[in-house]
Design brief:
Blueprint (H helix, E strand, L loop, with lengths): L1 H24 L9 E8 L7 H19 L7 E8 L4 H13 L4 E3 L4 H14 L3 E2 L16 E2 L5 H14 L4 E7 L2 H17 L2 E8 L5 H14 L3 E4 L3 H13 L5 E4 L4 H8 L7 E4 L10 H12 L8 H20 L5 H8 L3 E4 L2 E6 L2 E4 L4 E5 L5 E2 L1
Helix pairs in contact: 2-11, 3-4, 5-6, 7-8, 8-9, 11-12
């Protein structure tokens, strides 16, 4: 009788231990038996920030498909999305709220200012920040243990544009940059690349976020006076479009080029002036059918009734979400932030012709850059 009681006690204790252990496995922040909660602060304004709206659509289309097929090990991926309106302070507040709400990871913010604000919160809270959609060097240097960018940084875009310029006989360079710490870091990268490629950086065009038309007039006059062979930017499509328009009105004939940030909006805003303009792109052409992943994206957008909205933005959202899911699946059923980071640091995947890879001490992601020219019909030709 006593032995029977002891056995029942041990059986009860074993059940309790198993229950506690099982609860511990499911107790990771943002992870339940049926859900993985992801947080995103992103710009959702239309107009100059239409890229964010496009990104959000691409993310939704991919995750809707994954969730309809059962999610990741039976867990649906839900994105809690907050609009930061392109403002760094609001992005930081959003990230803090999302972390406070218990998201598993932060995901996919846009542009350098807001994305760096989210990075700050991620670092302080020790929360993974996957797929920031900005070309800022700060996501890679100095090393950021919680940041995992997918797209290439602007430095790789600068290199592609300048290399193309050099091969076509261009020798002098002009660079428009925001007068911020990040913008000055971009400027230093352009200096280094000019030295490496045997080119000359002759025209530096800094601007504040509140630059006026009069300020842009002065920059246009500087381009006219220095007359560099090529000029390019690192973002801020609106001010750059105005600079280009003003410079052309002064008779400047230099080769204006651009990075991917806001490229669709910039080309549309410039209209005829964009024809023949060279852009660096960190995503493949969303209209071509060369890559299986891009064909999959096109079909998914069509099924979602968004066939007319194929764009670099929605493709970046789709492919970044797909890379996230690949990493979550590789981590396994017992999902934790620590396990997710360990998995990412040994991850190498091919997505739409891009190699995305992370290692301990090096979270570079992709270095893929392709050059595109705006054709006569206003579309990008790769």
């Amino acid at each position: 009788m006593a032995l029977s009681i002891r056995c029942r006690r041990w059986g009860l204790m074993g059940a309790v231990v198993a229950l506690v252990a099982g609860s511990a496995l499911a107790a990771e922040v943002g992870v339940s038996e049926r859900e993985i909660l992801i947080g995103q602060s992103i710009t959702l304004l239309d107009g100059k920030h239409a890229y964010g709206t496009a990104v959000a659509k691409g993310v939704r289309v991919y995750l809707d498909r994954v969730n309809a097929e059962g999610g990741v090990f039976g867990r649906k991926i839900n994105v809690r999305r907050l609009d930061d309106q392109g403002d760094a302070a609001q992005a930081e507040a959003n990230a803090k709220k999302l972390v406070g709400d218990g998201v598993f990871a932060l995901f996919g913010s846009l542009e350098g200012g807001p994305s760096n604000a989210v990075l700050k919160v991620a670092h302080e809270a020790k929360v993974p920040f996957f797929g920031p959609m900005a070309g800022s060097p700060t996501f890679r240097r100095p090393f950021q243990p919680y940041a995992f960018p997918v797209r290439a940084e602007h430095r790789e875009e600068f290199r592609a544009l300048m290399t193309w310029g050099k091969t076509t006989g261009l020798k002098t360079v002009g660079f428009m940059h925001q007068d911020t710490a990040v913008g000055r870091a971009h400027l230093e990268n352009v200096r280094l690349l000019a030295d490496e490629l045997g080119m000359q950086l002759t025209t530096i065009l800094p601007f504040k976020s509140d630059i006026t038309d009069a300020g842009l007039d002065e920059l246009a006059k500087l381009v006219l006076a220095k007359h560099p062979d090529m000029v390019f930017n690192h973002g801020s499509a609106g001010p750059y479009a105005k600079l280009l328009t003003k410079a052309r009105a002064l008779g400047v004939k230099t080769n204006f080029m651009a990075v991917n940030a806001g490229s669709t909006q910039l080309a549309a805003q410039l209209g005829e002036a964009a024809r023949g303009m060279v852009f660096a792109q960190v995503m493949p052409n969303p209209l071509e059918r060369k890559h299986a992943d891009v064909r999959e994206y096109q079909e998914a957008m069509k099924l979602a009734g968004l066939e007319s909205e194929l764009s670099y933005g929605s493709l970046e959202g789709y492919l970044t979400a797909k890379t996230l899911v690949m990493a979550l699946r590789a981590t396994g059923r017992d999902l934790s932030r620590a396990a997710f980071i360990r998995t990412l640091e040994s991850l190498r995947v091919e997505v739409a012709g891009m190699t995305v890879q992370y290692q301990p001490g090096n979270h570079a992601g992709s270095t893929f850059v392709d050059l595109a020219i705006v054709g006569r019909d206003g579309r990008f030709v790769h």
